[in-house]
Design brief:
The protein is 70% helix and 0% strand. The protein is an all-alpha fold. It has one domain. The protein is extended.
Length: 69
């Protein structure tokens, strides 16, 4: 029961954070930059930059998209 209560509280906190970030696109960008800053201080040699799906759909629908002959 204690574990499920903890999971419930954690999921509620995640939802509240998502709602807050959804209200401001700049808040999400700032959070992203905070994450990159945190990664940079560690001894990592690889950083993965996620690309938003919206950007990929622009390339997919453009005339520049690869079309096999």
């Amino acid at each position: 029961i204690i574990t499920s209560e903890g999971e419930f509280k954690a999921s509620r906190a995640l939802k509240e954070a998502a709602d807050t970030l959804a209200q401001s696109p700049y808040a999400l960008q700032l959070r992203y930059l905070q994450t990159l800053s945190g990664i940079a201080t560690e001894q990592n040699s690889t950083i993965v930059f996620p690309v938003p799906i919206d950007i990929l759909s622009l390339f997919q629908n453009s005339e520049l998209a690869f079309k096999p002959s």
